[in-house]
Design a protein that fits this description.
Length: 298
């Protein structure tokens, strides 16, 4: 399975490009799932069909879906609440359950929802040859891609802190019971943290796997989108994530811009997609556009 992400500033044409690549790859005989994890959801307008979180077959070898992030936020909150209740069984006696509602105000929920949706899509559709993601605008995309690396740093420090607490607890138990050794007991909190480390490491490896994952940065000839593309490259490089392709979308013969991008982003393959005379909607219009790269190279 190959995983493709289309990233870039809002309005540069990520949805159109993700749809174009999805249609062309499907026509080549590969099984493709295209998922919009962008709250704006433009794929329904491009394909001119109603879409929802369940994959819908659009044509031979191509299914399309639109993830609702609010549903994933609710799933995460419910899972977190259940974990709290399992670990802190005494919470009912102290009425701690009424404070769980504050979880919904926690920062980072939206980007965590995006990450959960992405991983669930991959794990639930392993029979696909390609899974393509139409991503949210830059800020949210960079946050969810940074989430695994940042969380691993925090969780590893949290393990050290929890282990220190457990060591102190053992000392107190030995003193209290007058025993040289206390019985070994599995700590549910430490076990939960360690399981989270395993999960985040899998997410992180997935994003950084250059054989499995391809990132397509979409940019327009204008200065604003070029400036945002520079930010995307910088932040992703800091995370150890490589941009495989840079698509100069809505190209109208600006050779100086194309050559400038090729020099600046020499580690990526720069390709161009011409400006279309009309708004691209429907499979027939997508099929009429030439793909700027061979499918075997993706």
């Amino acid at each position: 399975m190959k995983i493709l992400f289309f990233v870039g500033k809002g309005g540069v044409g990520k949805s159109t490009n993700s749809a174009l690549f999805a249609v062309k790859i499907a026509r080549s005989g590969k099984k493709v799932l295209l998922n919009s994890i962008d709250p704006a959801h433009n794929l329904r307008d491009i394909f001119q069909v109603s879409l929802n979180p369940k994959p819908r077959k659009i044509m031979a070898n191509l299914a399309v879906m639109e993830t609702e992030l609010d549903q994933w936020v609710k799933k995460y909150l419910k899972s977190t609440e259940d974990d709290f209740k399992a670990v802190y069984k005494y919470q009912e006696a102290f009425n701690l359950h009424k404070y769980f509602r504050t979880l919904k105000y926690s920062p980072g929920l939206e980007e965590y929802a995006v990450l959960l949706a992405m991983v669930d899509t991959v794990q639930s559709n392993r029979e696909m040859d390609y899974i393509i993601f139409d991503t949210p605008p830059t800020a949210l995309t960079l946050k969810f891609m940074a989430l695994p690396s940042v969380s691993l740093l925090w969780l590893n420090e949290l393990i050290k802190f929890r282990q220190t607490i457990l060591d102190k607890k053992k000392i107190i138990t030995r003193i209290k019971n007058g025993k040289q050794q206390a019985g070994v007991e599995t700590d549910p909190i430490l076990a939960k943290i360690e399981s989270m480390v395993t999960r985040y490491r899998e997410f992180d490896n997935l994003l950084k796997d250059r054989q499995l994952t391809r990132l397509f940065a979409v940019v327009n000839p204008d200065k604003l989108s070029q400036a945002e593309t520079e930010l995307i490259y910088k932040e992703l490089k800091n995370l150890g994530i490589t941009v495989s392709f840079l698509i100069l979308n809505r190209y109208q013969g600006e050779e100086h811009i194309l050559s400038g991008l090729e020099k600046k982003y020499h580690d990526s393959r720069v390709i161009k997609l011409a400006e279309q005379d009309n708004e691209v909607t429907g499979i027939e219009m997508l099929e009429a556009i030439d793909l700027p790269v061979e499918i075997s190279e993706i």
